[in-house]
Design brief:
This protein has a domain at about 10-125: Winged helix-like DNA-binding domain superfamily/Winged helix DNA-binding domain (Arc Repressor Mutant, subunit A, Orthogonal Bundle). Helices cover about 65% and strands about 5% of the residues. It is built from seven helices and three strands, in the order ααβααββααα.
Length: about 170
């Protein structure tokens, strides 16, 4: 690199800032997940599956930001634990469909209240207005990736947590 080419400091690079912010948030959730024997990625899959009846593996990977190789390691463990079910697509045997098993739904129902309490604590600590701004700004950054199939924005998803935090505050 030439001496005339200057870059912003490493710690101020947007990818690093986003990773550090993610880690700061996940530190709040990890003890809760670990107490139930779950990794971040496993919980992400369970959360995504809880919102659908079933989904193809490729779409699940996209929704959870997980590479196919990671899914191929994680899903068998979740299936062995009775948390998810996998089957071939009825119209194309090459495609695999995943769904949350009854045990996985029960686990989700067990973890959801504490997860929402953590979201509520974050909202109180950061402030509801700032949290809404964060979600809105993240939606803007995510939109840079281009049009995707219609899905709820981060701000829309956060509305539930923000409303719950407001109701517990009053």
């Amino acid at each position: 690199m030439s001496s005339s080419t200057r870059m912003r400091p490493f710690e101020r690079s947007l990818p690093m800032q986003l990773m550090l912010a993610r880690e700061a948030v996940m530190q709040r959730f990890r003890p809760h997940l670990n107490a139930h024997g779950l990794t971040d990625q496993q919980w992400r899959i369970i959360r995504a599956l809880n919102e659908v009846d079933e989904i193809e593996i490729v779409e699940l990977g996209k929704n959870c930001c997980l590479h196919a190789a990671s899914l191929s390691r994680i899903l068998p463990k979740l299936e062995d634990g009775g948390l998810v079910s996998r089957r071939s697509h009825k119209n194309d045997q090459r495609r695999v469909v995943v769904s949350l098993a009854a045990k996985g739904r029960r686990l989700f129902e067990t973890l959801a209240p504490q997860s929402e309490a953590i979201y509520g604590a974050l909202a109180r600590e950061i402030g509801l207005q700032k949290l809404e701004q964060i979600y809105s700004l993240l939606d803007d950054v995510i939109a840079m990736a281009g049009p995707k199939k219609e899905r709820r924005t981060a701000a829309a998803q956060a509305n539930v947590a923000v409303k719950r935090a407001r109701s517990t505050k009053s």
